C-alpha cells in the first residue's frame, strides 16, 4: 500500500513538471528583436493598455545625436521580474544604446537592454 502511494505521488510530480528553457544571461536574441520575452507570462505593454502597471519616463523629448537621456522605469504595484526596453525612430529602426545601473544580465546590443533581479 505504501509503495502504491509513493508511485502515485511520483507520477503526479512527473505529470505536473513543466519544461522550461531558462536564459541565465538575460533575454535571448529573438526577445531583443520583437520585445516579447517568451517566459510564459503575459507581457505588459503600454501599447496594449497596460501602462497603469508601470511608468516609463524620459527626462527629455528633444535630443540630438550624442545626448544622454535618462529613462526611468518604475512600478508601485509590484516589483519587476525583468524588463525589455528598446529605443527606435519613427521608422522603427533601432537607435542609440542603453546602460542599466546596477546588476544587469543580458544583451545590450545596439538599443535593447534586458534586466533581471540579481543580475551580474
UniProtKB/TrEMBL annotation:
Residues 95-120 are annotated as: Disordered. Pfam families: Reeler. Residues 1-22 form the signal peptide. Keywords: Signal. Residues 32-103 form the Reelin domain. This is Secreted protein, putative. It comes from Ixodes scapularis (Black-legged tick). The gene is 8029034.
Amino acid at each position: 500500500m505504501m509503495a502504491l502511494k509513493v508511485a502515485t505521488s511520483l507520477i503526479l510530480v512527473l505529470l505536473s513538471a513543466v519544461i522550461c528553457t531558462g536564459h541565465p544571461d538575460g533575454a535571448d536574441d529573438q526577445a531583443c528583436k520583437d520585445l516579447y520575452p517568451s517566459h510564459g507570462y503575459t507581457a505588459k505593454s503600454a501599447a496594449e493598455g497596460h501602462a497603469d502597471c508601470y511608468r516609463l519616463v524620459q527626462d527629455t523629448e528633444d535630443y540630438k545625436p550624442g545626448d544622454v537621456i535618462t529613462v526611468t522605469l518604475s512600478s508601485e504595484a509590484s516589483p519587476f521580474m525583468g524588463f525589455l526596453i528598446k529605443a527606435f525612430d519613427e521608422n522603427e529602426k533601432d537607435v542609440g544604446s542603453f546602460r542599466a545601473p546596477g546588476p544587469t544580465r543580458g544583451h545590450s546590443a545596439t538599443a535593447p537592454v534586458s534586466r533581471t533581479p540579481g543580475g551580474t
